[in-house]
Description:
Distance between the termini: 21 Å
Amino acid sequence: MASMVSPGCSGIDSDGPSDRIFRVGEAIARKADTIQLKEGESGFWRLGGERSGNSIMKSNPLRLAGASPYLLLTLTALFWAGNAVVARALHTLLPPATMAFWRWVLALLLLLPFVLRPMYEQRAMLRANWARLALLGVLGVGCYNEFLYAAMQTTTATNGVLINSMTPLLIVLIGRMLFGVRMTRRQQAGILLSLAGVVGIVSRGDIAVFMRLDFNHGDLLLVGGALTWALYTVLLRWRPTDIGPLAFLGAAIVGGIVLLMLPLYLAELASGRAPVWNAASGAGMVYFAVFPSILSYLFWNRGVQKVGANRAGLFLYLVPVFGAMLAITFLGEQLHLFHLAGAALIFVGIALSTARTSGAESTARSASTEAVTLD
């Protein structure tokens, strides 16, 4: 995947950082123009109860009309990649449940001016569908973040972004298992290739590790997080269509906090794992709450509204690229041959399974794009 971006960047060394980001976005958009997809027929907003991003943007608390959608989508990928990198950087200061709990408590406090009124106006619908909303909140907001931050205690951020990159194919697989969504032979082959790539990363390229089942605990948690996120995405079809996006977002965050993150946080404190609060940990929590939570949500929806779900979905491939670059630059992590080989298998599998996507195939592929708004 790194090879996809580096050629585009190498020819613009004289430009500033914002120009580089903008041109990477334009290059991805031109690539997307060569893929013939029927936008809107089975896009991810159908699973979430919306046909397009327009209704969300009507409630957008920021005015982003003048911003380039390609810049916004690229920044979204950068912020999501930074989530794992910052979590790894702070793993000696903040235990995982503390990260997850305070990230979403702060994000909820910042979002309250925008979600409180829609939640109050739709309180009857929220109350009638509390079980569904609680399940989605626990899976999408609670479980995924707990898995991710727990994994970053013992594994690398590079492993985190690479293993999570196979989530779109897990969505296809779980959709088949739970709802009988049709899988083509191309998708089946892509899933097998991507799974082989994940096995290569988790085993560190050593077959003896696989035979002894001597895996890094954090890598296994990452796989669990990817499975949880894929399940959440598939179950978005259960989201009541009469509940608006901001009311749903607020309810999902509250459900994840109250039902899972708060109990785990209290249990963590009771076990003696107290956080170390200083300038670094405080700044990290602000980053968690603002950038991968709120700004990414707003930027993503604006980008989807302007360029469409299928084209926006291609920007997700920048997450592992940015993640590896940030981890190497700021954490001093090393990129090994098994990382490159595993990443190559994962992305070949994704490319194989998403080539000439149409009809039922695009439903599972584009479903992954809405789900990441809570990443």
